[in-house]
Design a protein that fits this description.
The complex is a heterodimer of chains A (385) and B (134). Chain A is an alpha/beta fold. Chain A has helices at 27-41, 61-69, 85-98, 113-116, 130-134, 144-158, 162-176, 190-195, 259-270, 287-296, 305-309, 327-331, 338-350; strands at residues 9-16, 51-54, 75-77, 104-111, 198-200, 203-204, 214-222, 234-243, 279-282, 363-370, 376-384. Chain B has 2 domains: 1-60, no CATH class; 62-134, EutN/Ccml (OB fold (Dihydrolipoamide Acetyltransferase, E2P)), CATH 2.40.50.220. The chains are: A alpha/beta (385), B mainly beta (134). Chains A and B meet through helix 5, helix 6 and strand 5 of A and strand 4, strand 5 and strand 6 of B. Bound molecules: zinc ion. Chain A: Residues 9-223 form the Thiolase N-terminal domain.
Chain lengths: 385, 134
């Protein structure tokens, strides 16, 4: 089998939808706006799109979004991999374009979960599902309860402290302060995080991501398909994916995420090691998740991420700039952050991130997670050509 | 002739967990045991996750376990439980882990716990745990 080195595939356009609180758009119109912008960056239009990828846009998401955008794809997917779906889609779209099954792939998503207040706390009771039988009756918050059980076990097993978790929230906020589009931009200290109320021990309010409206779109193609591109295409060097459990009791080890597989796969395909990464865009749904990914992707050993990030390694000016948009903790968390991790990685590699630009960024990693207590993971390695 | 509705008809169980919830009505916690490799599993499946045998039987768990993880929930989630309360993963001595509650705390990760039952007017009681010796 020929490697992807023979058929380099690119992200040729990337854009955010309106973010924050969006009272004047629907989810579909939001995706349309972002998709138009992303396609125009590549010198393309809706009529050029022949592959469509989305999640959470209805029961048959790509069908509903395709109708709205006037796209009849020859390759389509709306798998639900939670918030990481969009990294999975980059993996799949890259392979489909390389195999010649499509030429221009559009990945899009938007949510108005803040405006609609439609986030649920519990599973639907009595629907006969396993979650309704064996999780919901015990009062588990979906998903904070699952993540709290993961955080508690991880901290117990490896001596990770609340201050270690707080450092992640502070790092995200320091980046958000450099991003005019970020939702939370006030100064934040470790003490502030520690003083925020416990929601589900050990997770405090400021260990948990935002609930905002938002979304984005990216376009994937060969470079020659974006000949008229206004913006620099960014090469997809590698991608990987995996998933483990849905029900938290079925996870064999809550201190290991499926990132251990997706990271290995993606870095292997890209031919890079963690030391090569200039910018890291982890899915910071909960602070301890970032620590787990750093371990599972091989930036440090298991149990050592707390010490690894001490001294501001993830903050602006640190050795591993991470969550450079401000992340799900301080920039935007529209229910599924994965698409925006990719948008930010692209902007950093193009050198268009303004005040928060990481100097000489050549390799960026977007690492998505989804589901309940890190059910899914997908890792995408991007490079400036 | 019409049968009384099953627990699965009522949405309380599914056809593979009907026996489990019926056992709960008698305050018995049952899990599956593999006759081929002797490993236990829960929730039930038509094959053994360890050796893929289909020779499975229901056995009663001893009702002893160890706390694998726990969290104190401080926000309201369901009507039946008023925060704060303890949500936990308990590893049964037989092996499988259950999501459950720990009443009559305090409890910490690694603590030994014993099976207890929470009544749910009209529905099968729920298997919960309390600190061993309490
Ligand atoms: Zn077996």
């Amino acid at each position: 089998m020929t490697g992807l080195a023979d058929t380099p595939i690119y992200i040729v356009g990337a854009a955010e939808t309106p973010l924050g609180k969006v009272p004047d758009q629907s989810e579909f119109s939001m995706v349309a706006l972002a998709a138009r912008e992303a396609l125009s960056e590549a010198g393309l239009g809706f009529r050029d799109v022949d592959a469509l990828f989305t999640n959470y846009m209805g029961e048959e998401g790509s069908v509903q979004l395709g109708e709205y955008l006037g796209i009849r794809p020859r390759y389509a997917e709306s798998s639900d991999m939670g918030g990481a779906s969009f990294e999975f889609f980059v993996h799949h779209a890259m392979l489909a374009v390389a195999a010649g099954r499509c030429d221009v792939a559009l990945v899009g998503y938007a949510s108005r979960q803040r405006s609609r207040r439609n986030r649920k706390r519990a599973a639907d009771a009595m629907d006969g599902s396993l979650a309704a039988q064996f999780e919901a009756p015990f009062g588990i918050h979906f998903p904070i309860g699952h993540y709290a059980l993961s955080a508690a076990r991880y901290m117990h097993q490896y001596g990770i402290t609340p201050e270690h978790l707080a450092e992640v929230a502070v790092a995200a906020r320091e980046w958000a302060r450099l991003n005019p589009k970020a939702w939370s931009r006030d100064p934040l200290s470790i003490d502030d995080v520690m003083a925020s109320p416990l929601i589900s021990d050990p997770l405090r309010k400021l260990d948990c991501c935002l609930v905002t409206d938002g979304g984005g779109a990216i376009v994937i193609a060969r470079k020659d398909r974006a000949r008229d591109a206004a913006k620099r295409p960014v090469r997809i060097l590698g991608a990987g994916e995996s998933h483990v459990q849905w029900h938290v009791a079925q996870c064999p080890d809550l201190t290991v995420t499926p990132g251990i597989v997706s990271g290995h796969e993606a870095f292997g395909m890209a031919g890079i090691s963690p030391g090569d990464v200039d910018v890291f865009e982890p899915y910071d749904n909960f602070t301890h998740g970032v620590l787990l990914y750093l371990e599972d992707l091989g930036f440090c050993k298991k149990g050592e991420a707390g010490d690894f990030i001490a001294g501001g390694r993830l903050r602006p000016g640190g050795g591993l700039p991470s969550m450079t948009s401000g992340g799900g903790l301080s920039y935007c968390h529209p229910g599924a952050l994965g698409i925006l991790l990719l948008v930010e990685a692209v902007r950093q590699l193009r050198g268009e991130a303004g005040e928060r630009q990481v100097p000489d960024a050549h390799i960026a990693v977007a690492h998505g997670t989804g589901g309940l207590a890190f059910s899914t993971a997908s890792t995408v390695v991007l490079a400036r050509d | 002739m019409t049968d009384a509705p099953s627990l699965s008809d009522l949405g309380i169980a599914d056809p593979t967990t009907e026996l489990f919830w019926k056992a709960c009505l008698e305050r018995r916690l049952i899990i599956q045991k593999c006759r081929s490799c002797a490993s236990h599993q829960f929730y039930p499946r038509p094959f053994c996750l360890s050796c893929e045998s289909d020779a499975l039987e229901w056995v009663e768990a001893k009702g002893k376990g160890t706390v694998y993880s726990l969290t104190t929930v401080r926000i309201p989630v369901i009507e039946a439980l008023e925060p704060p309360y303890v949500l936990a993963l308990v590893e049964l001595d037989e092996g499988p882990r259950l999501l459950t509650n720990i009443d009559d705390g305090p409890a910490r990760i690694g603590d030994r716990v014993t099976l207890a039952w929470r009544e749910r007017g009209g529905l099968p009681p729920l298997p919960i745990f309390r600190p061993a010796g309490s």
